[in-house]
Specification:
233 residues; alpha+beta; seven-stranded mixed sheet; five-stranded antiparallel sheet; 5 helices; 25% helix
């Protein structure tokens, strides 16, 4: 079921209310533009007309411990769709960004409602810069139009992304998803700085673990895991 809006505050806010009402899995809230789109840490997400901004409600039958993998799954799905349709080298920045030529083309935000041992639902919000030229407006950002020099079919692209999400959900708890993410990663094998509340970790990103945490090797050779935070390449 698709709820389509010309403009709303944010698709995530609408999906949050729908999730509380127990709507069916796969329900989508999509908007032509958002006045209060947001990313991680409540940052504003620039949402002009021409982009794709949607939240899909998922009900994965997995333990909450695997919830961080949903961000990985979504980023893999978007990157694969871009590569398949347009031949652009989409790469992944931990934990939830998709990059083109080192610039952000897609941001992902997942909100979970869960009990100790079971997930009730996950609202997976995805914002993709498609046909709006954003490189002049947002530092460090780009769009498919900016990279290709032409507009693309948003309907075709969204359909492909949703098919990829469906396929990646089937391997959400397996090793295949982690292999896919590693193969597309722009973060692994480089020096990074992870900024999280109350701490900062600097080192070489060497891997991700089964839960999706980033593993860093510091200068003294010790390994540390980053569960969340801003990753600065």
């Amino acid at each position: 079921r698709i709820h389509h809006f010309k403009e709303i505050g944010s698709t995530m806010a609408v999906a949050r209310e729908l999730g509380k009402k127990g709507v069916e899995e796969g329900t989508i809230v999509i908007a032509e533009s958002q006045s209060h789109g947001r990313g991680r840490l409540s940052r504003k997400w620039f949402s002009p007309r021409g982009g794709i901004y949607f939240t899909i409600i998922l009900k994965p039958k997995i333990s909450p411990i695997y919830a961080p993998r949903i961000n990985l799954m979504a980023s893999v799905a978007v990157a694969k769709a871009i590569r398949k349709l347009y031949g652009l080298k989409a790469e992944l920045k931990w934990p939830n960004d998709v990059l083109l030529a080192g610039k952000k083309v897609c941001g992902i935000l997942a909100e979970m409602e869960a009990e100790v041992d079971a997930i009730s639902y996950v609202n997976l919000g995805i914002g993709i810069n498609v046909n709006a030229s954003v490189s002049q407006c947002e530092k460090g950002a780009t769009s498919l139009r900016d990279e290709l020099g032409r507009e693309v079919s948003r309907r075709e692209f969204l359909s492909t992304v949703l098919r990829e999400i469906n396929e990646q959900q089937a391997v959400l708890t397996g090793a295949e998803l982690l292999r896919e993410w590693r193969s597309l990663s722009a973060t692994l094998n480089r020096e990074v700085r992870i900024v999280a509340p109350g701490e900062e970790i600097v080192g070489q990103a060497v891997d991700i673990d089964a839960s999706g945490a980033l593993i860093l090797r510091s200068g003294d050779g010790s390994l540390r895991s980053a569960v969340a935070g801003d990753c600065i390449h």
